[in-house]
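quick q for whoever's on today - can somebody do inverse folding on this one?? i tried earlier but teh output was garbage lol. tokens:
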């Protein structure tokens, strides 16, 4: 938004004041945050849904309003396994592990480190796995939103 004003002309100054008062900055900032959250939601949802994971993928991604913006949340038993990976074969490689990685979900269990994999499930329904690669769905959601901040802010603030 560009406001031209002649500071020596009271009518021009009043017109500039009127334009500024009609410019709802709070609503525009909220729109920027919401659009960025929508981008993150789409990326995270696709990342979790398309993840390679032997277990039950129960991850549910939501966007929730918080003070001064929105939070993208991933809930479910499989979130950490899918986001950060699991197992000695595939569990490494998340770009920002933040202290998570293979063996950190249950530090008492050392099955994750077996090069032969491990089994999970019930005695009637056993499944063998070597783990899964990190999907990094939330990491990629953050990267996509950061990539578009300037473009979205410019679109919203300049109309």
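ok took a stab at it. sequence:
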């Amino acid at each position: 938004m560009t406001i031209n004003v002649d500071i020596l002309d009271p009518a021009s100054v009043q017109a500039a004041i009127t334009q500024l008062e009609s410019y709802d900055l709070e609503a525009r900032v909220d729109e920027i945050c919401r659009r960025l959250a929508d981008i993150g939601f789409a990326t995270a949802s696709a990342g979790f849904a398309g993840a390679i994971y032997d277990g039950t993928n129960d991850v549910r991604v939501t966007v929730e309003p918080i003070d001064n913006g929105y939070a993208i949340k991933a809930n479910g038993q499989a979130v950490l396994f899918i986001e950060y990976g699991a197992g000695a074969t595939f569990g490494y490689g998340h770009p920002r592990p933040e202290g998570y990685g293979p063996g950190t979900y249950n530090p008492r269990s050392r099955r994750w480190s077996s090069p032969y994999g491990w089994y999970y499930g019930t005695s009637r329904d056993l499944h063998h796995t070597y783990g899964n690669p990190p999907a990094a769905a939330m990491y990629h959601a953050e990267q996509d939103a950061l990539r578009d901040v300037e473009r979205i802010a410019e679109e919203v603030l300049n109309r």
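fwiw The CA atoms of residues 13 and 76 lie 56 Å apart. also The mean pLDDT is 86. so keep that in mind when u check it
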